[in-house]
């Protein structure tokens, strides 16, 4: 059995980088930008008023001063002339600041009578003028790789970048295997259960910015699995669920090898998720997940998501970890790294009592995995431990 880190290294070596494509801004949310974007203009492109008021020459002692209002500057409509001593322009937020103006006095600090304005308040020291290029200048870069946030998209738009170079979404084919499985909504026979893993993994994959393709459930026989693998053609990643262990009906590894899968590893020193396998199948990465529902989802977080991130051009690395304070005593760990379903709240992590890898109700309550290293001794409440967050604390 290899370690989680060794398995990840194998997976990163198997995973191809996705080719680049250009998408318009409205399609770019959550996509991974893989080349720097370069500002095509400065922002603001001109010195701009930050307030509604009157633009006058800079100077101390504005209080009580009077000015002739000689024109108006509004956002989108500048004032072409020059403002001299004793003169002012009516100016609005976002307007280009005319030549000669060094200070915008808030209209709340002014009294206007006809074409005359007098500063009746006490203007602050700030000029209320945003300098040209104060946000960014032409040629500035938004660096890649990065997963584009709403704020990034606003910045790109302001840079006058209309299309973004992103990694193509990896297509991930999902194959559930097992005679016992039926789809949600069907009427299961007496010995059957509902295929659930594929739905959890589908969501995980889509959330990661990849494109999940749910294939029909394959029965526990080679012909059915062959058909399913055939339907997965063209996918960048093929994920099988179940049939990975040592039982007579666990045929995924054998069938995959029959059709040419070059195996990179099988079995990991971790709990849950021991019978994980991976290899290369033609142009795709094949990942064989264990069938136990929690095992499949935990492997999704620990292996599939990092692989997808790397394929999208983000740095190759394990699922991010935090440190937390242990909220309850835990027994010594055995020879497999244990990822215990846990609740993280206010920096304290408390594992659930029941850790069976079939318990989806517990996984749904969990928002973190408490990581127990191989051979770790018993730990007491209050000690510092590592966790893999699964979702935000709630
Ligand atoms: N003698 C041994 N038995 C087992 C070992 C072992 O080392 N020696 N390992 C155990 C571990 S750990 C795991 S994990 C499981 C993994 O088994 P498989 O990957 O072969 O999975 P299946 O047998 O097909 O299914 C296990 C379990 O999960 C249910 N399942 C499968 N697919 C789905 C799905 N898409 N949605 C919902 N539930 C699913 C299936 O019905 C079984 O109950 O092996 C242990 N055994
Ligand atoms: O690895 Mo199994 O995933 O322990 O249940």
Automatic annotation (TrEMBL):
Occurrences of domain MoaB/Mog (ranges): 173-310
A Pfam family this chain is assigned to: MoeA_N
InterPro entries, alphabetized: MoaB/Mog-like_dom_sf, MoaB/Mog_dom, MoeA-like, MoeA_C_domain_IV, MoeA_C_domain_IV_sf, MoeA_linker/N, MoeA_linker/N_sf
UniProt key word Transferase: yes
Keywords: Magnesium, Metal-binding, Molybdenum, Molybdenum cofactor biosynthesis, Transferase
SMART domains named among the record's database cross-references: MoCF_biosynth (SM00852)
CDD domains in alphabetical order: MoeA
GO CC field: cytosol
Record pathway: Cofactor biosynthesis; molybdopterin biosynthesis
An example molecular function term from Gene Ontology annotations: metal ion binding
Gene3D superfamilies xref list: MoaB/Mog-like domain, MoeA, C-terminal, domain IV, Molybdopterin biosynthesis moea protein, domain 2, Molybdopterin biosynthesis moea protein, domain 3
Catalytic activity: adenylyl-molybdopterin + molybdate = Mo-molybdopterin + AMP + H(+)
EC number(s) reported in the record: 2.10.1.1
GO biological process, one term: Mo-molybdopterin cofactor biosynthetic process
Required cofactor names: Mg(2+)
UniProt function note: Catalyzes the insertion of molybdate into adenylated molybdopterin with the concomitant release of AMP.
Protein family (similarity comment): Belongs to the MoeA family.
Protein name: Molybdopterin molybdenumtransferase
Protein species of origin: Lutimaribacter pacificus
